[in-house]
UniProtKB/TrEMBL annotation:
Gene3D superfamilies for the chain: endopeptidase domain like (from Nostoc punctiforme)
InterPro entries linked: NLP_P60_dom, Papain-like_cys_pep_sf, PG_Endopeptidase_C40
Domain of life: Bacteria
Protein name: NlpC/P60 family protein
């Protein structure tokens, strides 16, 4: 009995010895990284949807702007036709006024002639006409014949004036109708133009809102990518640290280099572990950085000391052609290279045309494309 117990005790000890206790999974966990990458996909999808909505809104805006332009030009055409109609109406009114003046002038002449010849007597009365001059009955016949001739002449003139007046009245009516029609058309065109311009303004507001939404989505997608990258790097570093600890010894820059990484790899990997930390002017860690503060601390991890200034970081090592870059090389941005004081930004090359950098106030340490218009060159510190 005692022998069996002893054997069981020895077996348990061997199991414990051969199977060391499980250690906790290094943080961040694989699940954390997976969830961060899922968030990247979700935000990228939302960004794609926002981009599609913005493209559709811009297409609609182009269509509305074209329609508004057409209506504005139609309105301009109506104004031109209205001006011509107004001119024709004015000419017709001048002709009408001239004709009416002629009628009044002729009427006045006839009345004056009758008054002067017969002193205001009514020549339609035969008795008055018979005794209103010398010559008796024969004189009456002579004066009657003369009045008839005068009457016919004046009647013909009055008929001509009346005809002219009627023509002018027709012209005036036609001009007035055209004027009123063009007035209505111009008013309607102006209303259409106002509606079109209001639609364009509304679409512009919608496009601006969608642009703001897209910008926010881009920012959130960038933040998600940065967080996912940071978690992945932190996990890789934690796993490597765990491996080094099991090998016996702390994970130092020398240990990284002994495992095959170059000094630039170490600097780049460390900088990537700082993703998401805020940009603060003149800060050099550990909770915030500016651009040259981040690069200074990254190279400090491999024992290379450089100043906290882009001016001297630019001259901290040989200048490297852009087609021969290695991870950890410093990328500089400015107006020119002959004056280091003109260099205003620096980042660390991490491969495939990308860099890690601390961009600006209000932003965080993030991964971005190295290709910018103000890129002036690269340096490999030593």
């Amino acid at each position: 009995m005692h022998t069996v117990k002893a054997r069981l005790t020895i077996a348990c000890c061997l199991v414990v010895t051969m199977c060391p206790p499980a250690t906790a999974e290094p943080a961040p966990s694989a699940g954390d990284v997976a969830r961060a990458r899922a968030a990247v996909q979700a935000r990228a999808k939302a960004l794609g949807a926002a981009t599609a909505r913005l493209a559709s809104a811009n297409t609609r805006l182009d269509d509305l702007a074209a329609e508004a332009g057409r209506l504005v030009e139609a309105y301009n055409g109506q104004l031109v036709r209205l001006a011509a109609t107004q001119q024709h109406h004015a000419i017709a009114m001048e002709r009408l006024q001239a004709a009416e003046a002629k009628v009044n002038e002729t009427k006045a002449a006839v009345s004056m002639l009758a008054a002067q010849s017969y002193a205001g007597m009514d020549l339609s009365d035969p008795m008055v006409s018979l005794f209103s001059g010398g010559g008796g009955f024969e004189g009456y016949l002579h004066r009657a014949a003369m009045l008839e001739s005068i009457g016919k002449e004046q009647s013909e003139k009055l008929k001509q004036v009346r005809d002219t007046q009627q023509v002018a009245a027709v012209l005036r009516a036609q001009a007035a109708d055209a004027y009123n029609e063009q007035q209505q058309a111009a008013k309607q065109a102006e209303q259409f133009k106002a509606v079109a311009e209001a639609a364009v303004a509304g679409q512009q507001r919608e496009a601006k809102l969608l642009e703001a939404e897209k910008a926010e989505m881009e920012q959130r997608a960038d933040a998600a990518r940065t967080r996912a990258e940071r978690l992945a790097r932190e996990r890789a570093a934690a796993l490597e640290q765990d491996r080094l600890n099991r090998m016996g010894g702390a994970g130092s820059a020398a240990r990284w280099m002994a495992s095959g990484d170059s000094a630039g790899d170490v600097a780049a990997n460390w900088a990537l572990s700082q993703l998401g930390k805020p940009y603060v002017w003149a800060a050099d860690g550990p909770s915030s950085y500016d651009c040259s503060g981040l690069t200074m601390r990254a190279w400090e991890k491999v024992g290379v000391r450089i100043d906290h200034w882009t001016g001297t970081q630019w001259t901290s090592g040989p200048h490297i052609p852009l087609n021969r870059l290695k991870r950890g090389d410093l990328l500089f941005y400015g107006r020119e290279t002959s004056d280091p004081g003109d260099i205003h930004h620096v980042g660390l090359f991490v491969g495939r045309g990308m860099m890690v950098h601390a961009p600006q106030t209000g932003d965080v340490v993030r991964v971005a494309s190295m290709w910018r218009r103000d890129l002036v060159g690269a340096t490999r510190p030593r």
